[in-house]
Amino acid sequence: MGCRSASSATTILRGARCSPDRPHRLCAGVKVSDVGFLPKPLQRPHPPIWIGGHSPAALRRVALVGDGWMPIALRPPSLLRPPEMADKMARLRRLLPDAGRAEDEVAISVTAPVVVTKTPASPRPLLHGTPDEIAGDLRQYQALGIRNFNVNWPGADIAQQSEAMDQFMGEVVPLVA
């Protein structure tokens, strides 16, 4: 599109998807015109726009144009354990009023791999362990106000991932629901 900013590109995309006409907008010196998107989404005013990442630029983008924030919490080298997640959430809360938005306008989720084991390990990565250990880890994120979790399942194929999902649903979710 020629935009120098992901926030500007997101704004243009939102306009193209949701505007009944074809938007004309100047973006970083590039005129974007006659942009269309069909079929138009049923959700109003538009489908939610979720922003990933947790760099300062990503948090600014969330504050400006995001309906949701979806950082990946446990991917090295930049881990978002609960204390780090709390810091990032505090920064986002400070940015939202500057963007003219209320806190409740942005949903927050966490994306992370979860591995359920039968026996405890020490040391153990966050969200890897017995059902009780994983439930305790999830409760730490819940205590921050996070209600949405995107779980990455272990496994080399869909059958192994399905088994991991069933185990999580049967053994972990009842402990945090």
Summarize the structure in words:
It is a single chain. The protein has two domains: 47 residues, no CATH class; 128 residues, Luciferase-like domain (TIM Barrel, Alpha-Beta Barrel). It has 177 residues and is α/β, with parallel strands linked by helices. The protein is globular. The protein has six helices and eight strands. Helices cover 40% and strands 16% of the residues. The model has no long low-confidence stretch (mean pLDDT 84). The protein starts with 5 loop residues before the first helix and ends with a helix. The strands form three sheets. Strands 3-4-5-8 form a four-stranded parallel beta sheet, with helices on one face.
Considering the chains and any ligands shown, give keywords for the structure.
177 residues; alpha/beta; TIM Barrel; 2 domains; four-stranded parallel sheet; two-stranded antiparallel sheet; 6 helices; 8 strands; 40% helix; 16% strand
Per CATH, the architecture of the largest domain is Alpha-Beta Barrel
How many β-strand stretches? 8
The CATH superfamily of the largest domain is Luciferase-like domain
| CATH fold-type name of the largest domain | TIM Barrel
How much of the sequence is in beta strands? 15-25%
CA-atom Rg in angstroms = 19 Å
N-to-C SSE string, H for helix and E for strand = HEEEHEHEEEHEHH
Shape: globular
Structural class: alpha/beta
Proportion of residues in helical segments: 40-55%
How many domains?
2
Largest sheet: 4 strands, parallel
In CATH, what is the class of the largest domain? Answer: Alpha Beta
Question: Poorly predicted ranges (pLDDT <50, ≥5 residues)?
Answer: none
* Average pLDDT over all residues: 84
Give the terminus-to-terminus CA distance: 44 Å
